[in-house]
Amino acid sequence: MSRIRTGRTVAGEREKHRRAEARRRSAGYFDYGLLFFIIFLVAFGLVMLYSTSSYVASVNYGDSAYYLKRQFAFALLGLGIMFIVSRVPYHFWYRFAFAVFAVSLLLNVMVLFVGQSSNGSQRWLAIGPIRFQPSELAKVSVIIFVSYIVSRAPRKMAKFSNVVKVFALMLPMIGLVAYSNLSTGIIVAGIVFILLFVASPKYKDFIAIILLAAAGAAVFLMTFSYRLERVKVWLHPESNPDKAYQTIQGLYAIGSGGLFGKGLGESLQKLSKVPEPQNDMIFSIICEELGLFGAICIILLFVLLIWRLMLIANNTQDLFGSLLVIGIMAHIALQVTLNIAVATNSMPNTGITLPFISYGGSSLLILLGEMGIALSVSRGIHLVDLNSELPRNKS
Known about the structure:
mainly alpha; three-stranded antiparallel β-sheet; 15 helices; 3 strands; globular
């Protein structure tokens, strides 16, 4: 009897050990690959920011590291926000989706009345010493709210009329953002479109939305003559050298970089040739200093970042988490594509930053906050199913 009891005790201890090990392995997953790409892009962004802005900062502020110091402070704050958000269960955003969207909508309305202007654009709000762009917050609020709406009733997305209703619900936010910042409005509309496209099983119906969007864009351009003039400048930059000055100088920078570039810090176009080289046109300076090889490496880094997000979205336990990550992925992909398209004159010039690399505190904080949400979703992925992993002990 004692031997039988001893055998059962040993078998029981082994069973407990196997179950404890399986619980440890199935407790959760953290995407360290995504974290690596985020940190690398932020670090690379700081290096390129100093390289592109040191001359302008020295001339304007007497400190070549002026922009670097500010961006470094935002990066530290953003990484802290990312860490905190990554520890918050992502279902928290499900409960407060409407509140986040409502606050974002209110802040974008306030920009119309009490917003501050810079370079001829009224896009900023100031609360004491804090100055930020509510249009950046609109991106993440739309991601959360649309994910919430779709995940509440996913089967309703099979009816195209319900898809149109959700898109129509987002139009006030899209219109408010586009009024003060057209490029950001395009990104917000693109995020909504991609989320609804993924959620709906009827892909052909989205051709109607694309046609309606094209018609709306045409009406918008005809209504605002200065927008139409920008299109004309884009089509014939050589005929409008004054108005297309930034684009032409950016193309000179890209062309002069060659295959491997002039070397880090050796750009000539950043020396008062390309206006605000640390912002929208930073990709042009990257091409000049690091060449085609460096540009391809940066694009590949963004592709790898999007790939990691796609893996998380495909392996998430619920629809809400998957849509959150798809929305973040859409944001990054759209913004990178539009920035590079503007830098290479593949589309009309409009102010849009290169994620993690261009100068801008609001943009960097929101992007790192979104990465925190994606990392939080990744924690919900279980690598091992406890019940299927462990066979029952027959002894």
